[in-house]
Amino acid sequence: MGTALDVRVKRAGKVYHDGEVLSGVVVITSKDTVQHQGISLTMEGSVNLQLSAKNVGVFEAFCSTAKPIQIINSTIEMVKPGKLPSGKTEIPFEFPLQMKGNKVLYETYHGVFVNIQYTLRCDMRRSLLAKDLTKTCEFIVHSLSQKGKLLPSPVDFTITPETLQNVKERASLPKFLIRGHLNSTNCVITQPLTGELVVESAEAAVKSIELQLVRVETCGCAEGYARDATEIQNIQIADGDVCRGLPIPIHMVFPRLFTCPTLETTNFKVEFEVNIVVLLHDDHLITENFPLKLCRM
Amino acid sequence: SYFLRHARSRNYVSESEVCKLESVPLDFGDYHPLKPITVTESKTKKMNRKGSTSSTSSSSSSSMMDPLSSVLDGTDPLSLFAAAADPVTTAPPTDGARRKRDKDESSAVGSDFEPWSSKRGEILARYTTTEKLSINLYMGSEKGKATTTGSAVSEKVRTRLEELDDLEEGSQKELLNLTQQDYMNRIEELNQSLKDAWSSDQKVKALKIVIQCSKLLSDTTVIQFYPSKFVLITDILDTFGKLVYERILSMCVDNRVSLPDNFSPESVNDTAKETCLNWFFKIASIRELIPRFYVEAAILKCNKFLSKTGISECLPRLTSMIRGIGDPLVAVYARAYLCRVGMEVAPQLKESLNKNFFDFLLTFKQIHGDTVQNQLVVQCVEIPLYLTLYSPAIDWILQCIAYHAPDVLLTEMMERCKKLGNNALLLNSVMSAFRAEFIAARSMDFIGMIKECDESGFPKHLLFRSLGLNLALADPPENDRLQILNEAWKVITKLKNPQDYINCAEVWVEYTCRHFTKREVNTVLADVIKHMTPDRAFEDAYPQLQSIIQKVITYIYDFALLFSVEKFLPFLDMFQKESVRVEVCKCIMESFIKHQQESTKDPVILNALLHICKTMHDSVNALTLEDEKRMLAALINGFIKMVSFGRDFEQQLSFYVEARSMFCNLEPVLVQLIHSVNQLAMETRRVMKGNHSRKTAAFVRACVAFCFITIPSLSSIFTRLNLYLHSGQVALANQCLSQADAFFKAAVSLVPEVPKMISVDGKMRPSDAFLLEFLCNFFSTLLVVPDHPEQGVLFLVRGLLNVIQDYTWEDNSDDKVRIYTNVLHLLSAMTQEAFIYHVDKVDSNDTLYGGDSKFLAEINKLSETVVSQILDHLKTLGKEETLKRQSQLALYFFNTILAHGDLRNNRLNQLSVNLWNLAQKHGFADTKTMVKTLEYIKRRSKQPEMSHFTDLALRLPLQSRT
């Protein structure tokens, strides 16, 4: 390994916003002097859409449209062809993160069917004898704070055997009464989802109560669309037969990278939901679903 | 022949006047050389002692500043060092540094707060199990590629994800059928692998280990082991918390300057903050509640890097998070851990502590709920045992709450507990956690509560025990004291199980001793005996019984009073296992020696203590260690020294006789007895002012006889020799001439038995130095011993010389000749008209012979022999390798002649000149010594009748060294 290439952005969190300047250094370390045909830096941002296996057959025609959607792509020449001295060379750079025209800079998001990713790629072109060197570094884009105040939208809920849908034998269900509230279904992505839940009564012992964070990704266009809900994370808030009548806190931190503000575009949608899942000892599973709207403030 | 005929005649009186130091009256007013010198006073003291030349050393020491205090001026070096070493954060987190910092941190709480570390061991010892345990870990490392990860996910994120996924889906590793010890070892291994993973930069693996460990805390199978499991696993969590904190702290080092201890979040750089945030995000995504709670609590301190209010926001959240834990036991321990971390990180945040307790009270009813009861049935655990599992956690929570809490709060807590029907479990924890003063002041209330409390399975005797522990530390109101004792004892005495009983009684004995008279103590002891004797129950309760004795002797150290407690000795009889009995005896004797101020003849004390000492003595056997023997002997000696019958000397002697028969296996005791008896004889002499009556003469002879027959039973030869000599001197002083002769003869005949090597402090050492010292001492005594009329002249001296002659000396030693030279000192002293010292009322040889010429001739003959022996020896030293010794010996002999010989005699004069030359002949003489000696001779020559020294000095050449 003669020559090593590395790209480092300045911010520790690698988080940048629209209109900011991405600064950092390209670090080249080598024992000998490096002959090269130029070093360039490319900023790329794209949305990758994938189809889940079950949908592929139905919407084969759709496949062609599922090619990456480019958000941003620009290159700058950092160093003209020449030589670099041996040892460690640091070349600083500054790259404006600016959208052209009316395009929107989506937030970084890693999902199953939708991926929004931004990278900085450094290329060192070299003569025929040596391989070109490439190094990629992901950086994260957060959208700018949305203007205006977020209106809290609290939700109260009550779960009893009667409120359930999709029940085959309602009679065999044990009696229970679970009450609670979410402080808001409009959530600031940096703030946790909060609320409370009270098991007022339950005939069967409670085994576990969980919060399931679900992403709902929709890919599609005029030809049709695919909508898939997958779990992002599952957070247990109660373990075992909890005390009756005692409020249990609902608290969930939204994971970075895997969540982003609720996003709706012509080609794809990313939405989020939370399920409150109560597992009783006789293996009854009770789920209550709440759609969320995430935003960044 | 030419030596002693010309022994210098001495006038000891005038010589001593010349040589005596000028006596200066000492001002003892405020000065004593051993008195500690304080710097502030040193100036005035110096003034006081001006003009006193009595002791150069003392005056020099006084003018000197005390070096220690001068150093300590200002800040003492230790605290200075501590201050400098405080920001050790730059240092790599070595164990030592970490431990030190731990100490600093806990000191933020104050040393009066009993730290967790002291509870740890107690819990581990108390909550044990013989059942098989299991550890369930999902630590598989081999794992297929994550199927769903999109291609766009960066490499780093993906590996991270995979590693995290391993936790959930990796191969399961289940260890079944572990004994408790195995289990603890496994946990320790995990702790070690956590450290290893961390140090090899496998942070994700470290986190995995911690998560898996904290998961074990949700498992309540083998519930009686749960408290210990909690201790073990939270140790790992603590380790983890520290590792993370230190790692982030080390990232904050900027230009080699580490953060101060109370840094603000603004001074933390972005990288450190980002790392810290990452940890919190990672932990927030842990699926299961219990690991998520524990791991977050473990790194609670790291909130300091992010925001000022972080900790104060986290604590309440974590507190309410525990509400989600269904199992009340698991929940209460989680609360205990949170309180523990909270106290360490932010002791000022009291509210969460209280909230934790109130939450616990809210969920209290769960303990008697179906879920718990079913679990207990499955595990075959009784309710009383189950309830005691809560104690460590509740105790700890309450202790945190009660720390520096106002009485109002404590009262409120008590009220809250009462509302829950005076639950025994809570009451017990309140008593063990709250301040003793607080409890003691309300003792009667507590007794009331204990009586009416809903037992619900929690044993009541534990409640009384806790109350007793408080009362041992703090005093209840004066008026309640007796009633408290009565009420408590009424319950205690009814306890059927001896173990329950003794655990309670042990605690309450202290209270009784502290506040009541011997009557009550006696009653209590009697009750204990009554309970513990049936079925030999005491056999299982030695530690408690021992502690009772210890408490009793701590409070009743007047031994007359102690032994008048009738049940004390019967109580001792319960210690039937020898080792324990001896331990107890030792305690009692130590207390006696420590507290007994005056000597005693109280028959009760004597009888009891003799009995106790006899017990200790009888425990000595072939396997007893030397140290143990020494200790026992020291204790018995301490006792013997404290016994005095005043003027009743005969009684005293018969006590010693009895003691001898009792303690014959401990030599140091026998030695002590011989010394005591000798002292007794001398005391008699003092009382009679040296004139013994027929009766006292018989008595001292009895004393002497005691010594004479006791000494041979000792094994150490030098002890015997010295005791023979010593006792002989005592006999002589008491005019028991024939007895003294017997002692000296015995000593003489013992000398040949002195081995070449003796054991000193367990090491083999040559004995010659000891022998030399003893012989010189012996000869000095022999000067005043009068000759036996039926034996020849100087019978003892001759006898001793013969023994010395025949003794097999070390081949290359000059000891024999040195002794001979010293004998010359004795012989020259014997030729004097009046001896240099006498024993009062004993006529020595000077008086007996009155300078008879035959006597002098005998002495001369002897000295001639001795001198020729010396000269012969000097000749044998003419070989190359012994020249140095020859030179030294020659000079030694020369000095002897100089001091004791009459150098006006020509032959003697010539001999001394020859010796002088011999000493210098081969260049082994120390020039300095030779010069000094010569100067001395010249100085002496100026004295009257010493003019011949001038000539001598001229004849002594000084060899200059080339």
From TrEMBL, chain A:
<comment type="subunit">
    <text>Component of the commander complex that is essential for endosomal recycling of transmembrane cargos; the commander complex is composed of the CCC subcomplex and the retriever subcomplex. Component of the heterotrimeric retriever complex consisting of VPS26C, VPS29 and VPS35L; within the complex interacts with VPS35L. Interacts with SNX17 (via C-terminus); the interaction is direct and associates SNX17 with the retriever complex. Interacts with SNX31; the interaction is direct.</text>
</comment>
<keyword id="KW-0967">Endosome</keyword>
<comment type="similarity">
    <text>Belongs to the VPS26 family.</text>
</comment>
<dbReference type="GO" id="GO:0006886">
    <property type="term" value="P:intracellular protein transport"/>
</dbReference>
<dbReference type="GO" id="GO:0005768">
    <property type="term" value="C:endosome"/>
</dbReference>
<dbReference type="InterPro" id="IPR014752">
    <property type="entry name" value="Arrestin-like_C"/>
</dbReference>
<dbReference type="InterPro" id="IPR028934">
    <property type="entry name" value="Vps26-related"/>
</dbReference>
<protein>
    <recommendedName>
        <fullName>Vacuolar protein sorting-associated protein 26C</fullName>
    </recommendedName>
</protein>
<comment type="function">
    <text>Component of the commander complex that is essential for endosomal recycling of transmembrane cargos; the commander complex is composed of the CCC subcomplex and the retriever subcomplex. Component of the retriever complex, which is a heterotrimeric complex related to retromer cargo-selective complex (CSC) and essential for retromer-independent retrieval and recycling of numerous cargos such as integrin alpha-5/beta-1 (ITGA5:ITGB1). The recruitment of the retriever complex to the endosomal membrane involves CCC and WASH complexes.</text>
</comment>
<dbReference type="Pfam" id="PF03643">
    <property type="entry name" value="Vps26"/>
</dbReference>
TrEMBL record, chain B:
<feature type="region of interest" description="Disordered">
    <location>
        <begin position="83"/>
        <end position="114"/>
    </location>
</feature>
<protein>
    <recommendedName>
        <fullName>VPS35 endosomal protein-sorting factor-like</fullName>
    </recommendedName>
</protein>
<feature type="coiled-coil region">
    <location>
        <begin position="161"/>
        <end position="193"/>
    </location>
</feature>
<dbReference type="GO" id="GO:0005768">
    <property type="term" value="C:endosome"/>
</dbReference>
<keyword id="KW-0813">Transport</keyword>
<dbReference type="GO" id="GO:0015031">
    <property type="term" value="P:protein transport"/>
</dbReference>
<keyword id="KW-0967">Endosome</keyword>
<feature type="region of interest" description="Disordered">
    <location>
        <begin position="38"/>
        <end position="69"/>
    </location>
</feature>
<comment type="similarity">
    <text>Belongs to the VPS35L family.</text>
</comment>
<keyword id="KW-0653">Protein transport</keyword>
<dbReference type="GO" id="GO:0032456">
    <property type="term" value="P:endocytic recycling"/>
</dbReference>
<feature type="compositionally biased region" description="Low complexity">
    <location>
        <begin position="83"/>
        <end position="95"/>
    </location>
</feature>
<feature type="compositionally biased region" description="Low complexity">
    <location>
        <begin position="52"/>
        <end position="63"/>
    </location>
</feature>
<keyword id="KW-0175">Coiled coil</keyword>
<dbReference type="InterPro" id="IPR029705">
    <property type="entry name" value="VPS35L"/>
</dbReference>
